[in-house]
């Protein structure tokens, strides 16, 4: 397919710049990547990061809210369905993380598979997600801590919240102090911070096990009164149970933090899939067991929406359990805070390595081998936000970044399987070698033509037998079929994405007339089914076997599983609400301007040319052998 110059300037080149893709992870790319992070993490530490980042204090509240308003006694099924939906994304993450084990998570995968423009938006959205997520978690710790000092507003003066009347702002010194403490811990080293997070996570899991065991004992003593209500197991019907699944789905957000540490894993091909899968399985099991017990202790309509677990034990004479449950909530929040701040410096570092952000963010400490400067900047921003702002109103913005990342990771799996990049960027330092090899090939072809014209009859027969028209025709037809297959696959993936967007949008909006909504739903559904059917019919690309690091996890049920993942995540994105999308839109517009005025012109792909993978390998081999000689 020749080569294509990546655009670096304005005009039409600016559009082409959005589509340029960087090289997939390889030993050569890793050697040229500059400073590397320390490889310290094993599968047990990855599980600690995944469970600690996922099991937040939300489960201590969601149980009551979702049971009262959506699911009733079927809350366990809501958690199960949400866990299955989260597992779809986990499968996609597991394959990409093992194939491309570098820092950056979804930003890194989308830059390799989709293009620079989409990768920038994903990275920019994830920066917002982790900053607001960490700040929101920190603001939730002080009210829970206050219960140990006698109730709300009982913290010591230096840690208590104070209102600044001239600014109409409530500051939270405790939240800011905890963020700075976690930031300092993360700067010490990935091994040390993961060890502390593991201890906090184990303690939190012990509290949840207490809730399960003690609650089960009470349930067997009292006869599980919560399951004997007059409304039955599904008081709100199947729709209520599914609505509850959509709500509790966000309790599973956090396992993607494991993928962000891919560069620091000792054996990423084995440990990353195991870490992601095991962490999600543990979270789903704990959620389901807690919901089974609590819904059985108290009728769903009598649950306290704010403190469902504490109040359930209090109804059975165990008021002291409130302090144990509150300590579990505090531990869960602290662990989630570490999981929220951990990935962002690595995403900033990955974007800076690619030239989309200033190189300041790419610096790695020689002593601790972590991106200390990026970690400090992240901590200062999150601490400032948690100190001055009540970010609970912005909590929905956290979900946008996560769901966008989940969606684009699923799209990347389809691209990897059906149309993986068959050209790689060649740096400007090797472009002279590329042009020289082209000239040598052209000169060699001319020499062969001259020799062919003056050869003897015997040689002519040999040449004719080698360049048999039938063989050439078959090779040409095979190449033409492959080009046609790639075009068909690309159009099918585009059809799936367009169909999902039309279907979910038309099914969610309320201002459309009924007939128009039905027409758009049918049209979107047909596009989706047509693209999915075509992907099931055509063959996957043979290049997928050698894409990135081989020997790791392979996502099953492609294309069905990634398409289901895209459908579920897009539906959740559409239903986040207009206010959330307005605020996120402002942030994304800011990111567009940053990219236009800095990232586009400073990208490491600005002056590269694209060559076929086989030809690039020859150029790298010849340049390295020439250097050694």
Describe this protein's structure.
The structure is a single chain. With 629 residues, the chain is mainly α. 69% of the residues lie in helices and 3% in strands. It contains 24 helices and 5 strands. The strands form 2 sheets. A 3-stranded antiparallel β-sheet has the order 1-5-4. Strands 2-3 form a two-stranded antiparallel ribbon. Helix 13 packs antiparallel against helix 14 and helix 17 (396-418) packs antiparallel against helix 22. The protein is globular and about 100 Å long. The chain starts with a strand and ends with a helix. Mean pLDDT is 86; it is low at 1-11 and 456-466.
Question: What key attributes describe this structure?
Answer:
629 residues, mainly alpha, 24 helices, 69% helix, 3% strand, globular, disordered N terminus
Provide a quick synopsis of the model.
This protein is mainly alpha-helical and about 625 residues long. It has helices spanning about 10-20, 25-30, 45-55, 60-70, 75-100, 105-115, 115-145, 175-190, 190-220, 235-250, 255-260, 270-295, 310-315, 320-340, 345-355, 370-390, 395-420, 430-455, 455-465, 470-510, 515-535, 560-575, 580-600, 615-629, and strands spanning about 5, 160-165, 170, 425, 610. A hairpin with a 4-residue loop joins strand 2 (about 160-165) and strand 3.
| Number of DSSP E strands | 5
Figure out the total of helices: 24
Instruction: Describe the main β-sheet briefly.
Output: 3 strands, antiparallel
Query: Major sheet: order of its strands?
Result: 1-5-4
Query: Structural class, please?
Result: mainly alpha
């Amino acid at each position: 397919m020749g080569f294509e110059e990546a655009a670096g300037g304005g005009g039409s080149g600016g559009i082409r710049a959005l589509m340029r893709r960087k090289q997939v992870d390889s030993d050569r790319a890793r050697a040229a990547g500059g400073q590397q992070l320390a490889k310290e993490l094993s599968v047990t530490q990855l599980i600690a990061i995944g469970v600690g980042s996922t099991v937040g204090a939300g489960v201590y509240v969601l149980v009551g809210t979702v049971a009262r308003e959506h699911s009733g006694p079927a809350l366990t099924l809501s958690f199960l369905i949400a866990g299955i939906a989260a597992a779809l994304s986990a499968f996609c993450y597991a394959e990409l993380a093992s194939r491309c084990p570098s820092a950056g998570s979804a930003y890194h995968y989308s830059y390799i598979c989709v293009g620079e423009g989409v990768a920038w938006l994903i990275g920019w959205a994830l920066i917002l997600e982790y900053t607001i997520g960490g700040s929101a978690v920190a603001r939730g710790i002080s009210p829970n801590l206050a219960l140990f000092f006698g109730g709300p507003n009982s913290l010591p003066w230096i840690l208590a919240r104070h209102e600044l009347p001239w600014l109409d702002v409530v500051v939270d010194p405790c939240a800011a102090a905890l963020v700075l403490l976690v930031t300092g811990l993360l700067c010490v080293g990935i091994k040390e911070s993961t060890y502390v997070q593991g201890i906090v996570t184990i303690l939190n899991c012990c509290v949840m096990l207490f809730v399960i065991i003690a609650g089960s004992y009470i349930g067997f003593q009292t006869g599980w009164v919560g399951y004997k209500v007059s409304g039955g197991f599904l008081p709100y019907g199947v729709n209520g149970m599914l609505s509850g699944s959509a709500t509790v789905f966000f309790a599973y957000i956090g396992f993607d933090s494991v993928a962000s540490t891919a560069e620091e894993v000792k054996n990423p091909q084995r440990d990353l899939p195991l870490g992601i899968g095991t962490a999600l399985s543990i979270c789903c099991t704990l959620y389901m067991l807690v919901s089974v017990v609590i819904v059985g202790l108290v009728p769903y309509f009598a649950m306290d929406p704010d403190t469902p677990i504490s109040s359930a034990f209090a109804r059975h004479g165990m008021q002291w359990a409130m302090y144990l449950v509150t300590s579990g909530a505090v531990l869960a929040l602290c662990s989630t805070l570490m999981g929220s701040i951990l990935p962002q410096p690595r995403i900033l570092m990955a974007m800076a390595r690619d030239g989309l952000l200033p190189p300041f963010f790419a610096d790695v400490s020689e002593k601790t081998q972590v991106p200390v400067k990026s970690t400090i900047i992240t901590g200062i921003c999150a601490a400032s936000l948690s100190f001055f702002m009540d970010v609970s109103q912005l909590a929905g913005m956290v979900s946008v970044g996560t769901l966008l990342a989940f969606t684009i990771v699923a799209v990347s799996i389809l691209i990897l399987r059906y149309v993986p990049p068959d050209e790689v960027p060649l740096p400007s330092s090797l472009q002279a070698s590329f042009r020289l090899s082209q000239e040598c090939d052209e000169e060699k072809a001319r020499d062969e033509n001259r020799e062919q014209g003056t050869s003897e009859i015997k040689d002519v027969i040999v040449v004719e037998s080698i360049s048999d028209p039938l063989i050439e025709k078959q090779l040409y037809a095979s190449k033409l079929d492959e080009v046609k297959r790639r075009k068909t696959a690309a159009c099918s993936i585009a059809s799936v994405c367009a169909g999902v967007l039309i279907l979910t949008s038309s099914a969610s909006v309320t201002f459309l007339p009924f007939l128009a909504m039905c027409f758009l739903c049918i049209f979107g559904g047909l596009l989706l089914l047509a693209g999915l059917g075509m992907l099931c019919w055509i063959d996957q690309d043979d290049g997928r076997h050698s894409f990135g690091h081989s020997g790791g996890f392979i996502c099953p049920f492609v294309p069905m599983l990634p398409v289901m993942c895209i459908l579920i995540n897009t539906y959740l994105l559409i239903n986040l609400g207009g206010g959330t999308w307005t605020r996120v839109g402002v942030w994304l517009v800011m990111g567009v301007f940053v990219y236009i005025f800095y990232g586009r012109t400073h990208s490491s792909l600005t002056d590269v040319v694209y060559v076929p993978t086989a030809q690039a390998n020859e150029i790298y081999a010849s340049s390295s052998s020439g250097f050694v000689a």
